[in-house]
Amino acid sequence: MEFLLPYKITIWVIGWVGLLLLLQLIVLDVAILSKKHMPGFAIEANHEHFLFRANRALANSNESLGIFIVFVLFALFSQPIAHWVNGFAVVYLFGRVGHMLCYYFNLKVLRSIFFRGEFIGTYWIIYHRDNGLAVS
Q1: Which residue did the predictor score with more confidence, 97 or 2?
Q2: What number is the average pLDDT over the span 95-110?
Q3: Which residues have a Cβ under 8 Å from the Cβ of 129 and sit 6 or more positions away?
Q4: According to the model, what pLDDT value does residue 79 have?
Q5: pTM to 2 decimal places
Q6: CB 59 within 8 A of CB 25
Q7: Per-residue confidence at 1, pLDDT binned at 50, 70, 90?
Q8: Distance in angstroms (rounded) separating the CA atoms of residues 121 and 18
Q9: Cα dist. 122→42, 48, 76, 80, 90 in Å?
Q10: Element (H, E) at 115
């Protein structure tokens, strides 16, 4: 497992993303309980309601997580320069945190900006490798 040592920051980011998902699940559960939402019934699609926004924040995290993990695995096993992968993994994490907070506080434009940052972080984890930008 020594080949993973240069990617220690990326491994930590994966752990922090897991904690972020747990936090989002707890926030959603508290919102469900406080609104006395009936299990099994759809949540009303209304951005003015915190319950909907908390549900969407968690759903968006789940949607992007698989892509992030696949790209990280590809990067780890193709062994590009570690500081690129680590840096873009951190960009992804900050994008996810910002996106979540903007969803909670209903900051639509800022939420879109954080999503773009997250997308850039995810995309560049593998893009720099395939286009010869990873100079050793």
Answers
A1: 97
A2: 97
A3: 75, 78, 80, 84
A4: 79
A5: 0.89
A6: no
A7: confident
A8: 17
A9: 31, 29, 14, 15, 10
A10: helix 108-130
**Cα distances (Å, whole numbers) of residue 114 to 4, 101, 109:** 28, 10, 9
Q: How far apart are CA 68 and CA 12, in angstroms?
A: 14
Tokens found for residue 64? 């992007």
User: Which percentage of the chain shows pLDDT scores above 90?
Assistant: 74
Strand, coil or helix: 28: helix
- Whether residue 6 is predicted with pLDDT greater than 50 in this model: the reply is yes
With 0-12 CB in 10 A as exposed, 13-18 as middle and 19+ as buried, what is 122? buried
Measure the CA–CA gap between 132 and 116, rounded to whole angstroms: 23
Question: Which of 68, 133, 132, 76 lies closest to 95 in space, CA to CA?
Answer: 68
